[in-house]
């Protein structure tokens, strides 16, 4: 990476760097340092857990991105400070600013190191969970899938035979729809996460992790199959419900017409 010479630092940038010496910046840095310690402590606790909850994996995934950005920004800030110090050190009367900025540069380096440690910690958590998912025998109970497929076939067959759903059946279908709602989305997210994990965490180590990558991709395919089954079931439920609603509308319209005739 090219390094900008110290003499390229303009007065506006020097003024901006000196603002780091204003009162209150030390307190802000301390707050950041405390937050980083809390995050690292929680990551260490989660590393000792056998199974991570979905929200804990989400926490690690989101925090990795934040920590990665912070590491980059703190590294850039430390480099800017060093260039500014190199210029100010050549000017008379700037000893206090140089000393203060050197301290701020050391703090920026420390926060960068903390952020890099947090990136490593959160990635270890994600890798641990991906390994568990790769080894999982079933993400969804196979018996449940058999029931779902059978129910979809039954509903479609009933409609094909001309069955008119009753209000009670429509109400039951609404209950079933509510219970499976969202399962297709969660399976789609899982499949995406498994494929991204295989690519981002293990593809570069394909020689030693080839079996793991294959297992993750197979689990992603299974998640896709479950999603397709749920979507087909939801379609069957909607068709059955809509057919029942149509029949109810016909009955209601007929009754309204009879009442109108009586009034006339």
Automatic annotation (TrEMBL):
This is Uncharacterized protein.
């Amino acid at each position: 990476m090219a390094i900008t010479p110290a003499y390229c630092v303009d007065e506006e940038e020097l003024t901006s760097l000196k603002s780091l010496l204003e009162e209150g910046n030390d307190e802000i840095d301390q707050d950041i340092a405390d937050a980083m310690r809390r995050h690292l402590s929680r990551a260490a606790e989660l590393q000792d857990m056998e199974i991570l909850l979905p929200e804990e994996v989400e926490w690690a995934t989101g925090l990795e991105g934040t920590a990665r950005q912070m590491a980059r920004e703190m590294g850039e800030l430390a480099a800017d400070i060093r260039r500014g110090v190199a210029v100010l050190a050549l000017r008379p009367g700037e000893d206090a600013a140089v000393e203060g900025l050197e301290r701020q540069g050391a703090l920026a380096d420390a926060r960068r190191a903390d952020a890099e440690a947090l990136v490593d910690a959160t990635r270890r958590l994600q890798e641990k969970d991906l390994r568990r998912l790769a080894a999982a025998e079933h993400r969804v109970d196979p018996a449940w899938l058999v029931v779902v497929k059978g129910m979809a076939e039954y509903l479609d067959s009933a409609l094909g035979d001309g069955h008119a759903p009753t209000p009670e059946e429509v109400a039951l279908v609404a209950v079933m729809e509510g219970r499976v709602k969202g399962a297709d989305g969660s399976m789609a997210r899982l499949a995406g996460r498994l494929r991204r994990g295989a690519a981002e965490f293990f593809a570069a180590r394909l020689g030693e992790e080839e079996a793991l990558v294959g297992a993750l991709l197979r689990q992603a395919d299974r998640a896709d199959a479950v999603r397709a089954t749920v979507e087909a079931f939801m379609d069957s439920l909607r068709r059955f419900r809509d057919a029942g609603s149509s029949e109810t509308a016909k009955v209601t319209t007929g009754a309204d017409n009879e009442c109108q005739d009586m009034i006339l």
